Amino acid sequence: MASRNKFVVPGDQPVQIQGSPHIDRLKSRGEFVMYADRPATMQEQLDRVKDANVILNTRGAVKWPGEALRRLPKLKLIATCSIGTDMIDLKTAKELGITVCNQPGRTAPLVAEHAIALMFATAKRAAYFTTELKAGRWTKMDMVYLRGKTLGVIGTGNIGREVAKLGVALGMKVIAWTYNPSPEREREMGVKFVQMDELLRNSDVVSLNVRLSDQSRGMIGKRELAIMKKGSILINCGRGDLVQTGPLVDALNSGHLAGAGLDVFDQEPLPPNHPIFVCQQVVLTPHCADQTPEGVELLNEGVVDNVLAFLDGKPKNVVV
Predict the structure, then answer these.
(1) Is the pLDDT of residue 3 over 60?
(2) Nearest to 302 by CA among 108, 158, 103, 110
(3) What is the model's pTM?
(4) Catalytic residue check, 4
(5) Topology (CATH) of 108-284
């Protein structure tokens, strides 16, 4: 019966689903509980969802390690407002029979547009010049001309394909690396697949678009940054832990890299003393690549669609 369902949003800060008309589609199927603030402790987080059989996880900062999942015997589904699921211990979820659903590709065009925006802002030194002008300094520094340059796309899923498409439209030469290259995918995308080291050596801009996994964690470190072209740019709209922060800071401060455009970080929210803040040539945004009005509602619609499909016995976008 519908009354047996309890849907909980454990922490919707910054605002994602509050006020969305899509919430109304759930209210006829059970009790809906919204927590507008983020839980301060894990115990508070667990208390909020102790009777839930469905969690709508709207913020990636609300994490579900295995020990937390084991304390929620009523939980049947976690539906995320995201593509990534690295905030959830998927192995434990599978062991416990908890279904996890995400939203692959739903906002790929928005994230790709943001990656390109970071590329332009970094290449044209927008943040640096703004800071200098506000400080009363009329500073001159060379920028990076992008047309005709090489864009290296790491990861050719939904977002990577969109980034590549935009790069081609801008008149850039696009090369790509993927875990699963094939001549068919190469023809479909209209780009050349290359080995990772070749991509790093030859790209003027490197865009990271792979999901975070044990295989990809820290994939861009001291060695990889050293291989990158002097004066190249790194863009990361994937996950912060794809890049090793210390070596990235060193590569920026030494001038080996011309800059970096980052939407994701190894710590989120960023603490005031994070080492990336000492770098001048960075453009930083707070993990918000798909946070436009259109993107927000696409994700809100998608998370509710996933919940309803699960309730109807036809789950979709199942990760585990």
Answers:
(1) no
(2) 103
(3) 0.92
(4) no
(5) Rossmann fold (3.40.50)
